[in-house]
């Protein structure tokens, strides 16, 4: 792999200077381990599950793809389990803020978090967090729930008509273009980092609390381009407000058959995929984890849920807890080299 060329003028993991662009807060050992996990009470252990409303923390601001999937899962689980599932958005710190309440909660399955691959896996690698202190190890896996794709988009008001046009403009003006992302380690961030490396371009990266806020600035002309998850960008592509420049897959996306892959645009072998996963407090009883997993499985099998996900270009991705752990460990090996390059570039 070639030496990483920095795509951003700011150090990876630093908090942005502008308050409206929320930030990258380093995910340290203290943020995960400072507060001891509480033990479930004997009374709770004797009650059937769920004994009260369930809290689902979403590791992003509202209006993004993670929020979309989280609310769909919450609605389905509430109907199946017979208790409300209350959604709470906690964006920022690359998803770490949403995980802290889960770490402090009693291990009884009433506090959950849904987060993306970046928060659960890639950003801890960027921060050199030891494996045993990463979210995949200190939280209890329940299920992967979605395979999420991204699209390279730009505003209709920008002059570029193709990926080649955009790359030429970026090369002609190193550091002159800007792009947004919902946090270090997210799939849009990974895609942009790979593009900088594989296409030999440099632009300024701007972090946000989620894909939704970044999209607002792209549409307003305050950003030049970004990789956006399909739920975030599809509506704007359909209205013509955004221009799709390419998809980071090895084959074209069925929902966008006229949009070429980045490989077709000249960046050979380019592919970035991501997933969303649901986790709970470590030590939650196996029976509770199985109940939550079964509710998610039923939700993702419902025709209405499948249709909603498909309309946003998202594929349901149900797994058992064991499969979740296995996939996470495999992806940790896959993405560690690029994470280490990003870490060195930030120093």
Structural class of the secondary structure composition?
A: alpha/beta
Q: What's the N-to-C terminus distance?
A: 19 Å
Beta fraction = 15-25%
Q: How many strands, what sense, and barrel or not for the largest sheet?
A: 6 strands, mixed
Stretches where pLDDT is under 50 for at least 5 consecutive residues are 1-45
* Strand arrangement across the biggest beta sheet: 2-1-3-10-4-11
The CATH topology name of the largest domain reads D-Maltodextrin-Binding Protein, domain 2
How many independent structural domains?
2
Q: SSE string, helix = H, strand = E?
A: HHEHEHEHHEEHEHEHEHEEHHEH
Estimated helix fraction: 40-55%
Task: Please explain how this structure is put together.
With 347 residues, the chain is an alpha/beta fold. It has two domains: 29-37 and 47-148 and 275-345, D-Maltodextrin-Binding Protein, domain 2; 150-246, 3-Layer(aba) Sandwich (D-Maltodextrin-Binding Protein, domain 2). 41% of the residues lie in helices and 17% in strands. It is built from 13 helices and eleven strands. Strands 2-1-3-10-4-11 form a six-stranded mixed β-sheet, with helices on both faces. A three-stranded antiparallel β-sheet has the order 8-5-9. A two-stranded parallel ribbon has the order 6-7. Helix 3 (65-81) links the parallel strand 1 (54-58) and strand 2 (85-89). Helix 3 (65-81) packs across helix 11 and helix 5 packs across helix 13 (321-345). It is globular, with a radius of gyration of 20 Å.
């Amino acid at each position: 792999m070639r030496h990483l060329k920095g795509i951003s003028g700011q150090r990876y993991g630093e908090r942005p200077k502008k308050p409206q662009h929320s930030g990258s807060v380093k995910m340290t050992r203290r943020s995960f381990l400072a507060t001891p996990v509480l033990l479930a009470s004997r009374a709770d252990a004797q009650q059937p599950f769920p004994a009260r409303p369930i809290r689902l923390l979403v590791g992003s601001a509202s209006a993004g793809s993670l929020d979309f999937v989280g609310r769909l899962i919450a609605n389905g689980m509430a109907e199946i389990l017979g208790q409300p599932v209350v959604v709470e958005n906690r964006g920022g710190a690359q998803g770490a803020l949403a995980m802290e309440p889960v770490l402090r909660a009693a291990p009884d399955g009433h506090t959950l978090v849904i987060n993306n691959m970046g928060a659960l896996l890639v950003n801890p690698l960027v921060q050199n967090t030891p494996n045993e202190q990463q979210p995949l190890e200190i939280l209890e896996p329940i299920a992967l729930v979605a395979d999420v794709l991204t699209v390279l988009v730009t505003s209709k008001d920008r002059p570029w008509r193709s990926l080649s046009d955009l790359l030429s403009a970026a090369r002609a003006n190193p550091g002159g273009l800007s792009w947004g992302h919902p946090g270090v380690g997210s799939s849009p961030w990974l895609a942009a980092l790979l593009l900088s490396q594989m296409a030999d371009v440099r632009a300024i990266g701007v972090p946000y609390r989620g894909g939704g806020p970044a999209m607002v600035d792209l549409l307003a002309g305050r950003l030049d381009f970004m990789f956006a998850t399909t739920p975030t960008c599809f509506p704007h592509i359909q209205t013509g407000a955004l221009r799709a420049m390419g998809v980071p897959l090895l084959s074209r996306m069925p929902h966008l058959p006229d949009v070429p892959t980045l490989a077709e645009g000249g960046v050979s072998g380019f592919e970035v995929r991501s997933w969303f996963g649901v986790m709970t407090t470590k030590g939650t009883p196996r029976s509770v984890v199985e109940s939550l997993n079964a509710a998610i499985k039923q939700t993702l099998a419902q025709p209405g849920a499948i249709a909603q996900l498909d309309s946003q270009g998202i594929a349901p991705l149900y797994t058992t807890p064991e499969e979740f752990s296995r996939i996470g460990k495999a992806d940790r090996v896959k993405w560690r080299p690029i994470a280490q390059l990003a870490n060195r570039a930030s120093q």
